[in-house]
Design a protein that fits this description.
CATH architecture of chain A: Orthogonal Bundle
Distance between the termini of chain A: 58 Å
Strand content of chain A: under 5%
Shape of chain B: globular
Helix content of chain B: over 70%
Radius of gyration of chain A: 17 Å
CATH topology of chain A: Helix Hairpins
Largest sheet of chain A: none
Radius of gyration of chain B: 23 Å
Helix content of chain A: over 70%
Strand order of the largest sheet of chain B: 1-2
Largest sheet of chain B: 2 strands, antiparallel
Number of strands of chain B: 2
Structural class of chain B: mainly alpha
Oligomer: heterodimer
């Protein structure tokens, strides 16, 4: 493990972030889109921990706790909304979201 | 104790809040306390006394507004508090007034709306107050931890309020759309914060999340390409809240589907949060990058004003017109932010760029809520379906509502002598002083277009002749509605005097 450097961690974080972003942009199932959003937050968290560890700074590690809390709150509200939408529409495909237009 | 624990102990003692720190955020604590009081009241009050809950909220908010206007140093200190987590860089009174005023008006609009739809009133007020408290703290943020947490607290609360009507498919659809777009923007914002933190930390900056330290480092030339990418992502996150081009695509759908009181809250409080945080970001941590950010902001100002106004021109649903015209108002707010970078000493009459920001927002709040109140008093089967044609003969059905619409839309369009005109004039004076001629040109074109579509709504309500002479049903308005309309109409006229004197 002596050979893992900051660059390795950042590469992994960047990869996760891009996977998440791609998923948000191309997937049609709202639950999968939502999972991809969480993946992006996780990627940012990983980069934060890596920077915090390799730069010998503490506040990044502290921010991680806040990010986890925020993500948990967001998931609670988000899943409630998606479930309520499923009950109304019977689907969680984003193509079905077309009732709002001029 | 191990050396690590001992050093942590010293760190925590140095970071511990002092007594003055709590006094400095007393108004915010009161708002959050009021939010908790709503839940408590909902628990203990019998059903016959539930009317007390919104009443307490309104009285409380009005008292806190008076309190934050009192110029005592307790809650107006300009010192950093909580070990640098908070430090007011913006005019504190303005920031607090904007959020408190929009919360108060949202509460006034929401109560009967929610009752008619059998939705819970206390919960709505609770979430509304927590959002307000978070946004008031956001305006004083001096650290990316505070910034992120406050922004996200408000965002999660707004997801709830947008999707509040669980039986309405439109409200839920708007909620989910807002959730996905908002989640995407906050993930990008967080990545931006991480990149700035990491790149500056690698260069030896001691506290690379603190706004002032970031400013010092960047002005000393300590930044890399990674910092610039991070900056762009962070500014994008703030621009999303503001609804500036190219982050405005969510606005029409979400505003249309959201419950109308929430639409007004989104248009005012959420836009104010975006404007304040963008102002803060480009003027404090990223001030050293003004050479790069100022031209970018100027270009975005022009595009935002034109896109918003042209979009509103081609729209027939009133809520969407308000949404897209809101985008053009976001353009005016961007113009103020641009001026603060290009010509920091610029001032219109007695208002600096930072002051103009909150004055413009207050004027926008008055116009938006007057218009929204008129809409809400009109009966409709579905809240998201409000075509302009439904306003026909409004003047004969209810002169008061037509008057509210007249005052509200005139103020939004910027017709003298309304407060909206005074606010727009301040922006134009600032643009002249900063010699941003082409932005000024775009602003003038924007005002011209906006007068056209605002008045086409008004023409439908007031002038449009009806072919038949049949009797139209009179629309009754409650005493509260008449009071709100009278109060806001008075503010519309008197506000411009306050700005000029």
């Amino acid at each position: 493990m002596e050979h893992t450097t900051l660059a390795h961690h950042l590469l992994l974080a960047g990869l996760l972030f891009v996977i998440g972003l791609t998923g948000v942009l191309i997937r049609r199932n709202l639950l999968v889109v939502y999972m991809c959003l969480e993946l992006m937050l996780t990627a940012a968290t990983l980069a934060l921990v890596a920077f915090s560890r390799f730069n010998h700074l503490m506040d990044g590690a502290v921010l991680v706790f806040f990010v986890i809390t925020v993500a948990a709150a967001e998931v609670a509200v988000g899943l409630a909304l998606i479930v309520a939408l499923f009950r109304q529409r019977g689907t969680v495909q984003s193509d079905a979201l077309n009732s709002l237009h001029d | 104790m191990t050396p690590l624990l001992a050093s942590l102990d010293v760190t925590f003692k140095a970071l511990a809040p002092r007594s003055g720190d709590w006094q400095a955020i007393l108004p915010e604590i009161c708002v959050a306390g009021l939010g908790l009081l709503c839940l408590l009241q909902a628990l203990i009050l019998p059903a016959t006394q539930r009317w007390l809950i919104p009443a307490t909220t309104r009285v409380g908010l009005a008292l806190i507004m008076v309190m934050s206007l009192v110029p005592v140093s307790y809650w107006n200190s300009s010192e950093p508090t909580f070990a640098g987590l908070l430090m007011p860089h913006l005019p504190l009174i303005g920031v607090r007034l904007v959020f408190l005023f929009s919360a108060l008006l949202t509460s006034l609009l929401a109560e009967s709306f929610l009752r008619e739809r059998q939705a819970s009133v206390p919960d709505y007020h609770h979430v509304l107050l927590i959002i307000t408290s978070a946004l008031m703290l956001l305006g004083q943020a001096n650290h990316f931890v505070t910034f992120f947490v406050c922004l996200e607290t408000a965002a999660v609360g707004l997801y709830i309020l947008v999707g509040y009507l669980r039986r309405s498919a439109a409200s839920l659809e708007a909620g989910v759309k807002y959730l996905v777009m908002g989640g995407l923007s906050s993930a990008l914002l967080l990545m931006g914060i991480v990149l700035v933190y990491g790149s500056l930390g690698s260069l030896g900056v001691k506290d690379p999340l603190n706004f002032v330290e970031i400013q010092v480092a960047i002005e000393a030339g300590k930044f890399t390409a990674l910092t610039l990418v991070g900056t762009a992502l962070i500014l994008g996150g703030a621009a999303f809240k503001l609804g500036a081009f190219p982050f405005h695509t969510w606005i029409p759908d979400v505003y249309q589907g959201a419950p109308t009181p929430t639409t007004a809250l989104l248009a005012t409080a959420s836009k104010a949060a975006g404007a304040f945080s963008l102002f803060l970001l480009v003027n404090v941590p990223f001030h050293g990058l003004a050479v790069r950010t100022a031209p970018l902001l100027a270009v975005l100002t022009v595009i935002t004003i034109l896109v918003g106004n042209l979009g509103a021109l081609a729209t027939t649903n009133i809520k969407r017109v308000l949404a897209l015209s809101g985008v053009s108002h976001a353009g005016f707010l961007l113009a103020i932010i641009t001026v603060s970078l290009v010509q920091p000493e610029a001032s219109a009459i007695k208002w600096s760029a930072a002051d103009t920001l909150w004055v413009y927002l207050l004027a926008y709040i008055v116009g938006t809520f007057l218009t929204t109140q008129a809409l809400l008093a009109m009966p409709t089967a579905e809240d998201h379906h409000r075509p302009i044609l439904a306003l026909r003969k409004l003047f004969r059905r209810s002169p008061i509502l037509a008057g509210a619409l007249g005052f509200g839309l005139s103020s939004l369009a910027g017709v003298p002598p309304t407060v909206g005109f005074a606010a727009k004039l301040l922006v134009l004076i600032l643009l002249v002083q900063a010699k941003l001629w082409w932005v000024l040109g775009a602003a003038l074109i924007g005002v011209t277009i906006s007068i056209h579509y605002y008045f086409s709504i008004l023409r439908e309500a007031v002038i449009r002749p009806s072919d038949d002479n049949e009797e139209v049903a009179v629309l009754p308005t409650s005493g509260l509605v008449r009071f709100i309309i009278g109060f806001l109409a008075a503010v519309t006229v008197l506000g411009s005097l306050l700005i000029f004197i």
